[in-house]
Amino acid sequence: MLIAGIVFGAFVQPMAENADGMPPEVLAVMGGTDSLVSGYIGFMSINFAVMVAVFVLLAVQSLRGEEQAMRAEPILATSVSRSQWLLSWTAIAGLGTLWLLAVAGIGIGLGAAVATGDGELFGQALLGQFAQTPAVWVLLGLAVALYSWAPRALGFVWVVFVYSTVLSFFGDMLQLSGVILSTSVFRHIGQYPAEDISWAGFAVLTLIAGALTALGIVGFRRRDLVTA
């Protein structure tokens, strides 16, 4: 994530220098030629949030793998409660999200600051990347809830992920309405520094993620486990 961030961050200078030759659709996604640098950094914040979301969903899928491989049953037969077991996995995935996005933000900031000579880009890239954390947490909470209540439906979270990703990357290019775009989990924070961070959206997404996780805990306590 760090290396990728540095590489993508350093690419901001060549993009700015060749803005005139870029397709208008790409320029529109990046915010136009006047704000191409900030638009590119903001776009990268979504790009890395999508990458980390894949890690989160795979982490929850591994929960089901542990259960199906009969490794959860002996652990839960000890003093470890179902809530503790589920929360430990969820907490690691949640903290891992924060850590990976921070590392990506550091990389993007370093690459962009060195390439352009503008040190302010470092802080902007780091903050913009950190701001995307709740969007990934919502997908994490949804995956936990599906795993807990209906494990066979866990794959549905990938549909939500792909749908949100497509809208985030191509929604503006396709000139979709704001109502449709708002159904993507990645469209509520803002692509900082090209756009202001919506702290209200940040708070709401965090609450939704927490509610979904709590719902998952309730469901996991009630349903039957796969046992030998």
Number of strands: 0
Any idea what the shape is? elongated
Q: Major sheet, described briefly?
A: none
Mean pLDDT: 89
Summarize the SSE layout with pairings.
Layout: H1 2-10, H2 12-17, H3 24-30, H4 36-68, H5 72-76, H6 82-116, H7 120-130, H8 133-149, H9 156-170, H10 178-181, H11 199-222
Q: How would you describe what is shown here?
A:
With 228 residues, the protein is mainly alpha-helical. Helix 4 packs parallel to helix 7. The model has no long low-confidence stretch (mean pLDDT 89).
Describe the structure in brief.
This protein is an all-alpha fold.
Key features?
single chain, 228 residues, mainly alpha, elongated
